[in-house]
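Subject: for your reference before the review

Hello V.,

The reviewers asked for a structural picture of the protein, and I figured it would be easier to keep everything in one thread rather than splitting it across files. Below is the amino acid sequence we used in the manuscript, unchanged from the supplementary table.
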Amino acid sequence: MKTKSILSILTAVILSVLFFSCDNNMVNYSDVSGKIYYGNYYPAANLKITIGDAVTKTANDGSFKIPNVSYPYNINILDSARGNVYIFKKLSTDKINFTLDNYTSGYFSATIKVKVPDSLMTNGKKGKLIFTDGQYVNSYANISTLSPTSMFDVGLQDINPVTGKLILLAYKLNSFGNIYSYENFGLKTDISINAGLIYNITFDSSEIAFDPGEEIISGTVIPTPEYNETGSEFVLSFTGKQIHDINGSNSFGGASGILYDLIVPTGLPVPYTTYVLKEFWNGQNYSGEFFPVYLNSPNTYEMKLPPELITPENNAANVNDAVMFSFSEGTGKGIFEIFLYDRSNNIHYRIFTASNNFTLKDFDQSGFGSVSNHEFEWIVKKAGVYNSMNEFAGNQFNNANWFSSTSEYRRFYTQP
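And here is what came back from the structure prediction:
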């Protein structure tokens, strides 16, 4: 009986080992697919994608797929037309959505012409038009003060139709250029647009008669000594997705100072979130953060410290693929984006990693040939809020609040 018991136990152990081994194999291998975009969600077509020995290219919609990938893996994205290489380190996810640099072709866009009553933009009023599908299509325009018709382009992801809403919001500014009163609100829903077409939309007086209320949002930003504030804006966002560029079209004014107050509209029939952008500079390093603020909340945020470069020293010579590049962690949860500019060939390399060190190993195989005897510049940016490379790879678009901090730059020269 004892022998049978021992055999039963051994059998159970062996089966368990086999089961978990199979399970681990399933976890460690999968097809990897996803989409690559330029800024503002424009598909990046015809880019070369390399994982290990497997090579493919992105389709017209930016999509790609590589089968049977072993985890963890590095992915190399070559944009030969623009002289860019993107290297993403140690991923272990089967779904990828990357946003690269902010190149836009204007091909996937629709034009909207909006006519408003002549009386709207009088008495010093300003205003904005916003088209949003509540997801990734979000375009802003300032209402013209010279003509009753304002025209703006809505950037689209592809040729498929998009249905969204058009929002009109008019307001008045004080002598400092800040909003102190919201005057008019208008909304048109279920507007379907297609790339390459022009749409004429009219708001009459009754459709913009709603007068929003106003509330004050206050907040505090804790800077680091020796850093000075160089920029501040606030945005009313009608989507829960990431807004890439803060500019004159989508900015509703400044939010300057360590202690700041904003005037936001109340009573709107559509939900929105208020975001503040704060930027700081100490002469060498940059830190910026785009964060949500709320009514009846302390809204206290602390400036993130950027990484500091450690090795190699500035103007280092004879750098080869054995030399370790290193830098400090900085503060905040995020991943590192390393920019290396090959001044000799006018090529830009970007490494995305969770590690605070790297080498130039395999750069010769990245798509632009040897990097020997070249002059380089490099900086490190920390991008958050991300807990891992996998989260960055799969959830970048949904990270509505973000921070970015950047080191000083250094120069080095590779070995002949």
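For the response letter, the relevant points are probably these. The helical segments are 2-28, 389-395. The longest helix spans residues 2-28.

Happy to draft the paragraph if you're swamped.

O.
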